[in-house]
Every structure is written in structure tokens, then in C-alpha cells.
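Archive record:
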Amino acid sequence: MFFIPSKHLGQKLRTITACLLVLGFLQTSLAEGLPLDKPENVGVSSERLQRLSAAMQRYIDGNMLAGTVALISRNGKIIHLESQGWKNKETGEAMTDDAIFVIMSMTKPIVTTALMMLYEEGRFLLTDPITDWIPELEGKAVIVNDEGGSYRMTAKRPITFRHVLSHTSGLDPNRDALSEEELALMPRAATLEATLLKRAPLPLNFHPGDDWLYGSSTDYVALLVERISGEPLVDFLQERILDPLQMHDTFYIVPRDKVHRIATVYKPTGENQTIELARAPEYRETSYFGGVAGLSSTAADYWRFSQMLLNGGALDGVRLLSPKTINLMISNHSGDNDVYIRGPGYTFGLGFGIVNDAGKARDPLTPGTFTWGGAWGTIFWVDPVENMIGIMMTQITSYSHLSVRQDLGVTAMQAIIDSYSNKPYLVAPYRTLD
């Protein structure tokens, strides 16, 4: 863990301390098998990177977050990996670099990658209807709203693979328009497949492709992985992604011998939104292996996944995808529909939000950066222009009152002293022709 110099120390002392701490960081973290380097070796300022530490510490000191793990890499080298605050404030356990976090919706990019691996095998086209593999969804109705109320009609077009991968499927119905009998179909069953098949009779929220709605679409991606591959999602991910990428701390069920590494979940309360305990770490069994959420992971593990994407689909001699497939995944598949969950300046690809307009986006990231986060505060982004990855792990049930995710981007970007913005880069979204 880095020591954060006091703001009252002199400039020279802070610079010397930063250099010494980077050396200490490299020595103590080498055992983890991570490719570590000094920030200056990849065009980043060590001194300026301390602002990331200070930003995270302000949230911890203000009792807005219990603890964080932040990771920054460039050119395939990790230049910042720091745990701050507490893994469990109630027990006084300090946060550790190897802490395990429930990553919620950061499960989606991993499950999306699984389906795109099957795409590369020629098992389907993005324009194919998913009913080729999930025939239980044939003949879906659509809820249509007009001035006279709502009515139902047959969907104008089938739900395609592109629709479920880009959240334009309409598969999350408007609950206000459902009958009591239909609402009774909504609660989750014991398994993913049982849940989705129970909901099969429900109407669509809109005609597929007509809008963007963030919801359960990636659960259908998960079911497609199972149906096409012929094996459970949990096994496919383990055999085809997690083991090859050496993501040994990523699980749907965290093993009993690693429960002590799980970070405690907190929630904001009161007028000042300070935190209190929401969920203590414990061993949890499940038979529900979803695509929307469900995985737990570490900053280091998620970096390996992110670096694979930034490398164009390969890491340490293991190739999962082609660079051309990555380019396709980080292109705009949401059209002009509003990706409201990230705000203006974003489009959506296949599994990722994509910064499209720096003049509108809240996140201070390079256009072309692809990213997503989890409902309990986790975030990652991959900037192909600057060849940089940012990951921040924390556990809080609601964070709309915080800017910690944006602060990760601000402090990482401002630390760059040699920009690559005019240099070619390996992966990039396809552009539409004007």
C-alpha cells in the first residue's frame, strides 16, 4: 500500500517519497506475478499520480466510502495498485490489494466475451434471431403506449443477438402495464434458465431495436452461451476465459478459504450520506449463474481481462478473440438511442459503454474509451488511444451522490505527461461514414 504524503510536506520531499514508494510497491507486489513498472517509464508522472490516492482518501476520511483498491496501467505495465481504507470497518481490517469485490454489472463484459467467442466459431450472426436457440421466446408481443392508454401487438421484428448484446431487445417489460398474473412471473427462480423461461410469456417493452433499455438482456446472453455451447455458463467461463487468463480470484461462489478476503458492503445513510454496514462477508452458495451480475473478482484479475481486450483479444500467449472482434464490440450498436445510465456523450457497443463525445460526457476519458461499472461502486475503463486501463473497486450500494468514478478518470488522465493521442493504436471502434 502507498503512503500518502501530507500536504504540508515540501514539494521535494513529496517527490522523493513518491519515488521510494514506487520502488517499495514494485518489490512487495512482484510476488503477485503482475507486470509492474515505474510511471515515468510509460509517460506518466509519479508525483501527479498521487492525486489519485488523495482523491480516494478524501472519500474514506469523509466516511463516504470504507475503502478502495485502485489500479492504473499503461503499455501493459501496472504503474499504480493501491489499497486504502478498510476492508471491514467493524473489525478494523485494512483494505488489501487482493481484496475480493462483488462486481455486479462488471459481470456483463465477461459474459459478453463468452458469447462473442462462440460468434467467432461461426455459430451465429449478430443479425440472427435468438429464437434459433431460445424458441420459447417466439411470438413475443409488445406493449405500445399512446394517448388512449396502452395496447399490445406482435413485435415488428425478431429479437436478434445484436439486440441482447446491446440492450436494445426490449426484454424488460414495463411493470406498470402488466397484469397481476404477469407480475407473478417476474420473481427470480432458482436458476437462470428457469427464470427466463418463466418470464417468456411477458410482453416486450418496445419493438426490438427501437430503444435502449438497461436491464436483463445480458441474462439472455448467458442463456445463449449455455444453449450454444452445451455446457453451464459457470463451466464455460472457467474453462474458456478465467483459467486461460489466470483469473484465479474470480468466482460466482467465492470459496470458503477466500471469504476472509471479501470486502464488506456498505450503504449511504442519513442527510450526510455517511456509510453504515449493509452486508458482511460470508460464504454464499448459489445455483443462479447470471449474465447481468453474479461474479466477484479482484482489481488484478479484472486487469487481466481488461488487458486482454486492450491487446486485441490476447494475453500472455493466450488468444480469446480477434482484434477485429474487439473493434466490433466497441463500436456503436445502440444507434442514436440515449444510453441514459451513463449520461450524454455515450453510445453502447456489445457489452460496453463507449465514450463518443468528450464535450458531453461526464467522464473525462478519451473518445473511444470503453467502460462499464457495477451497482456496488466498481468501475473499469480501457482507453485504446492512451493505451491505459483504470480500475477502481469499492463496495457501496448507492453512489449517485459521489463522483469517485469520475475522479479515477480525472486523476489518471492528468497524470499523463506523454500523450499518445496522435499515435496509432491497436483496437478502435468502427466509425460510421458521414
